[in-house]
Amino acid sequence: MESVIERIQRGNFWQFHGGIHPPEQKFLTCNKPIASAQIPEQLIIPIRQHIGQAGDLIIKVGDKVLKGQALSASDTPMSLPVHAPTSGTITAIKSMAIPHPSGLSETCIILTPDGQDTWKQRHICPDFQLLSKAQILEKIANAGISGMGGAGFPTQVKVSTLAKIDYLIINAAECEPYITADDLLIQEHSPTILDGIKIVDHLLTPKHILIGIEDNKPKAIEALQKATADIENIKVCVIPTKYPSGGEKQLIQILTGQEVPSGVLPSSLGIVMQNVATCFAIADAVINDTPLIKRVVTVSGQALEKPQNIWALIGTPVGFLTNQCGYQNSEKRHLIMGGPMMGFSLPHDQVPVIKSTNCILAPSEIEIASPFSSTSSKEVECIRCGQCADVCPAQLLPQELQWSAKAKDQPQLTKLNLFDCIECGACAYVCPSQIPLVHYYRVAKAEIRQQKLLDIKAEKAKVRFEARKLRLEREKIARAEKHKIAAEARKARMNSGTTAAKSEKSAVADALARVKAKKAQASLSTNTAANTADNPMDTSAASTVTAAQNDNSKSQVANAIARAKAKKLVQKNQAKIDSLDTLQDNESPSSTSLAQAAPVVIDKKAKVAAAIAKAKAKKRKAEAASSNENIPAEPTVEASQILKPDVIANESTTEENDNEAGNKKAKVAAAIAKAKLKVKAKADADAILNTEPVLENAEKTPNKTEITATEIINIDHLSENEDNGEPLTVNAIDSSNVDRKAKIAAAVAKAKAKKLAVKSQQTSDIPLSTISESKESEDKRVLATQAASAANKKARIAAAVAKAKAKKLAASSDKSSTSE
């Protein structure tokens, strides 16, 4: 089988999938020497210019620095320092826009040059073979060298691999249009590049060194062949021009025929690749002790008067370089960092040059025009032509990647191997719908990286949490063990029998007693509160509980509860007394003296006394009305006779025990008095009717006229008027019939007698049932008898008054009949 070297010697190379042939446009700058740019007025130096972590700042604002002096320090392999491109003063450290497709800002160092360009002290080493591999790697790391072909991977990581390397490939293809920086660098500095190749060869000791370069660079090919003519293991491989043959995986496949699998580093296949500009920087750092502070940048485009390659200091603003090349399109500035295929637009011209910047394009409006229009381009819907998949060098499915990127379907993007995309832009170049596919891929990659960082942080937090949990558990176990040991030691001391042991034992017993007392106090307070809530009127029990609490525990909480309950009971009793006073104030004036003379009692007994006093007052009023007939008045019954103070006092304490017996006796006495009153009232009424003088002159007939219901109502009305003090009139009676008038008068008298009987009955129905003491039942019976006799006497008086009125009425009727 033909070997790789034999195929290379014959010029028979492999092919990769896809690829395109865009217009090269290299003629603008390939025939002009590299120019040196002036020192700008201000340098903007981002502290992170590579793939990895930013270094730690070792300077501050106001410091004066020398050319080549480190501005940051690295502590990890993926962290690189940055250096001062010239001498000057650090005027600011702030966040500014950096060269990135996102246009985001990061921390940058603002250096104001002093114009002297003073170098720091350097140590020249003409022969690198006098240095060990560790020293060489240290020099490369301290110089801050990263991949200058565009990826920005730290170089010391690549060249320090421990894997067995078969092929060291030097990438000089520079396949992207417009860019000629590597071409001119090879033409002018091929010896230095060769020194860098030898240094890497010394570190990796590969079997073969292959320099891949496209056939559109004849001068650079000639320079490399002359420089490597006497070196046997270095082969200059001139490959056909095809974009993107300068990609790492594509160039490996072209030269060796090996395809790097997805997610696999080339070093695992025994292959390491370095850019020619990186080899130049390695030689300059190891031999001349010069850090990476400048690089060759292609400034091209039809909008420039003098497009050319320039040695630009790291941190130089893009606008400063384009002005030196005669940028004329000042109104519509459109600047691109990188080539037309893999570059990205800049937000403004103050974005600085960094270590991976190889080109700045200032195209005219014709160069960036859309195929659909001479002035603008517009994205339209995908027509599913499949051209993007045909030209993809990584053999991906660009249209599906774009759909998943728009849907933010990160798992599907991972399945479609998004990170195998080298962002060459071939798919976007051939897309007839003008879809910026590479921009979708870049955004999706950034989102996935951010999510991975968040997942890593979450995992670290989880690990810290689990570690803390275990630590707390261990501390808990340790404390428990410590307490156990201390308890055992204390127990041993207490059982030793010494004086100190007895004192300690008594202290423990006292502590236990205090704990038990506190628990008993808490339970007692709870039970007392519950009992007091169920029986709020039991003041004696509440006071007893309160006294017990004060004697036992002197607890402030228990005392406060007891005081609150006692206050509540006092308020309730005072409210009842106030209601009784209000009731007494509303009584008639005649009963005020009796109500004031009677002692104040509580609740039902006071109401009984007030009712009795009211009845007595009405009785005296009736007696005063009949004083014109010289009827002796009823003797006044004092309040002490109605309800004695000692009885009232005793009733308030023994009411619940004797209530039932007292009620029964009082009801019996009231019933007897009521029956006697009814009998007496009926006898008086019959006597009045039988002795009425008006009936003697009346005409006797066998059948007496009955009184109708209407007449009875009128009679009742007359009786009511009489009670109110109004004299009876004969207007309501028919004067033409004397007999009828006499009958009406008799009926009126009878009705009055019945009404008096009802009143006396109501008086006898006084609720004496509330007087419940058995020793006072005799007084109650006497009281009932006195009430009954008073009612009988009042009935007799009323009958006499009715009889007199009837006589007077009969006499007046006789006179009127005689005159007629």
UniProtKB/TrEMBL annotation:
Cofactor(s) for this UniProt protein: [4Fe-4S] cluster
Protein's name according to its UniProt entry: Ion-translocating oxidoreductase complex subunit C
Name of encoding gene: rnfC
Similarity comment text for this entry: Belongs to the 4Fe4S bacterial-type ferredoxin family. RnfC subfamily.
Organism: Cognaticolwellia beringensis
Protein's membrane topology: Peripheral membrane protein
First-level EC class: translocase
Keyword Metal-binding: yes
NCBIfam families, alphabetized: PRK05035.1, rnfC
GO molecular function, one term: electron transfer activity
